[in-house]
Amino acid sequence: MKVTILGSGTNLHPTRAAAGYLFQTDRPILLDFGPRTLSNLLKTGVDRHTIKHLLFTHYHTDHFSDFLTFFFDAICHSAFVNIRPDLTIYGPPGTKRLFRAMFRTFPNWSDPPFQVTLKEVKDRPFTIGQTQVTPLPMTHSDQQTCLGYRIEYQGRSMAFSGDAMASRNLVSLCQDADVAILDCSFSSHAPGGSHMHAEECGKVAKKANAKKLVLSHFYETADRSNVVTQARRFFSGPIIKGKDLLTLKIGTTMPIKVGI
Fold it and tell me: What is the CATH number of the domain that holds 144?
C-alpha cells in the first residue's frame, strides 16, 4: 500500500497544491481534491479515468474545488473518447445535497454517461474492494462535519486526519497506524484555531503509538519554521515533512519521490 501526496498546502499557498492524496491498494482511491491537485495527479502516471472511488473529508474549497474540473473532464472524455467507469463518491452528511445541487446547476451534469453513486458516511467502516475504510468525525468546523479516514489493506494501515484539532477521535483513528498523516497548519508559535500546530501533531502521534508521522496541510507560516523539530519534542518516531508528489510506501524506511 502506498500514498502519494498530491497537495500538502492550502488554498493559495505559493509553492504547494492544496489538500489531496492518492492511495493505491488493490485500486486507486482519491482522498480530497483541492486546487492544483488534479495537475499533480496527472504527473503520477495514474490514469485519472480509472479512478472509481473518491473520498471527501469536508467541502471547504481547499479540499474540494478541483473535483469540478475533474468531473467536467470525465464527461467530455466519456462523450468523445471512451466512457469512463462508474464513479462512487463518499463524504460526510450533506454530501448528497451538495452534489445533487451541483449536478442540477451545471449543463449536462445531471445525466452523465456513467453512473455516479453518492454515499454519506460518518463513523462506520466500509470496504472498497479489499480495502477497509474507517471514517470518524473530527473536531474542525461548527458548520459541517469533517471526517478523518483510516485506510487498511493487507495488514497495513494509514490514518489521515483531514482538517482537525486534537481529539479523542483523532487519537483513536491513528491508534497503532503504520503512518499517520496529520493536519499541521501552523508552527507551534503561531496562533491556531480549528487546526493543529506541529507540537499537537507530535502529541497525537505519541498518544496513538503511531509508527510514523507525516506532517501536511501547511499554511505559509508553518513553512517558515522547523515543524519537524517542534513535533519531535513529543514524538520520538520517524517524522516526515510532507511535500507535493512525495510517495510513501508502507514497509520501506524512506519515502519515494515521484513526478517532478
Answer: 3.60.15.10
How many CB atoms sit inside 10 A of residue 232's CB? 17
pLDDT of the chain, 260 residues: tens digit per residue: 999 999 999 988 889 999 999 999 999 999 999 999 999 999 999 999 999 999 999 999 999 999 999 999 999 999 899 999 999 999 999 999 999 999 999 888 888 999 999 999 999 999 999 999 999 999 876 666 899 999 999 999 999 999 888 899 999 999 999 999 999 988 887 666 788 889 999 999 999 999 999 999 998 888 888 999 999 999 999 999 999 999 999 865 445 454 43
Edge-to-edge strand list for the sheet holding 2-7? 116-120, 87-91, 53-55, 28-33, 20-24, 2-7, 246-249, 256-257
Domain count, the chain: 1
- Model confidence, pTM: 0.92
Q: Which domain holds residue 241?
A: 2-257
